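Wed. Picked up where I left off yesterday with Glutathione synthetase. The coffee machine is broken again, so keeping this brief.
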Amino acid sequence: MATNWGSLLQDEQQLEELARQAVDRALAEGVLLRTSQEPTSSDVVSYAPFTLFPSLVPSALLEQAYAVQMDFNMLVDAVSQNAAFLEQTLASTIKRDDFTARLFDIHKQVLKEGIAQTVFLGLNRSDYMFQCSADGSPVLKQIEINTISASFGGLASRTPAVHRHVLSVLSKTKEAAKILSNNPSKGLALGIAKAWELYGSANALVLLIAQEKERDIFDQRAIENELLARNIHVIRRRFEAISEKGSLDQDRRLFVDGQEIAVVYFRDGYMPCQYSLQNWEARLLLERSCAVKCPDIATQLAGTKKVQQELSRAGMLEMLLPGQPEAVARLRATFAGLYSLNMGEEGDQAIAEALAAPSRFVLKPQREGGGNNLYGEEMVQALKQLKDSEERASYILMEKIEPEPFENCLLRPGSPVQVVQCISELGIFGVYVRQGKTLVMNKHVGHLLRTKAIEHADGGVAAGVAVLDNPYPV
Ligand code: ADP
Ligand code: MG
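Structure written out below (tokens, as returned):
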């Protein structure tokens, strides 16, 4: 995709002046992060990194991504309810991946005891890149779906004003009007509010499981604020506090500090390093309760890369979404090549192909949060090492998506204004609520565009690689 902003990107002086204005507007709008020096305090904050200009995205692909979001919501929900599918899919992975194994243990334990939870809430974000096809046209390909702690819905609500500002300064009024309004935090909050309402206890609270060091606090506050505006109160607690102050009554209602909890919203608990023994105990306590977990443990497992890979196998979507051929077709159209590395011929062949053409593949462990995947020479070394070991089943192999790079300016606190070659990743936020067997809410609630310099293979905004952006539909 070419940029619209070609000549503007040539004028260094103008870029610097524009950047100053953009940064001030971003600060005024609340596009904020705590600093890495003081991640526990809001005394000193800075702007979240963002692009100076919105990046061009074909409207057809935006529409496609929005249109398939409800299907992804249904799919995740179906996987989370299919214990046999989860068990079979994750069997060889959990033998070699301790983190997935521990999540799976809790899942089994809760199933055995009987699930007390009756209302289910999914807040997810499906991420895509625009694969440059043989004829040069971009094609929407899913990178992954995040079923736990999907972030930046709050800040993404505030960035449109910044890009409109930049374009207005340039007297590009028509262009400014093309920047889509976006309010994922409101939609995410409406999902939480619905789950809270169905839980049905007027004095119960929402419990946000928070990290000790949280730079992305303002993103989370955007959701909390929306809830408070609906008279739903949120308390923030760390896992440690739950293990000390959390309890279940005889009906498995969850209490923290003596207050009943209707909804548990995890903004922690998606990486191994976030769990001490005490935290695993707290997670189990939460899962055993009848409070609405977002996500419940099965839905977190539904978001693993291994599940993503198995879903791409012939017949899987049809099995999980019977009688819905249109949804199945929409979903499948977004799938990139995904390959199992389980022991056996199929896995051997995938490894051979990746070793023969490393630039066409990505090696992924069962991890979230960015910076875990292996590419190029690193991938080759890892594959050679893993080849004959069962450990390889804890990874999947994925076709590498190659979008066409374009130019933009990435603005970061303390960095000079520079035009660089970039690629973007589009995320669509989805919300669903299920009560028993009835889906009572299923919708898309907004988008997130993140852009990064092409030299970084991996990593999101939190990892310090990508920056916030807005799609400029063309
Ligand atoms: P995580 O759960 O750590 O976010 P992802 O699967 O989203 O894992 O990968 C992290 C980043 O790596 C993505 O944001 C994207 O930039 C890059 N990436 C992942 N998969 C691919 C792929 N198949 N092709 C190209 N880049 C990829
Ligand atoms: Mg990701």
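Quick read: The radius of gyration is 22 Å.
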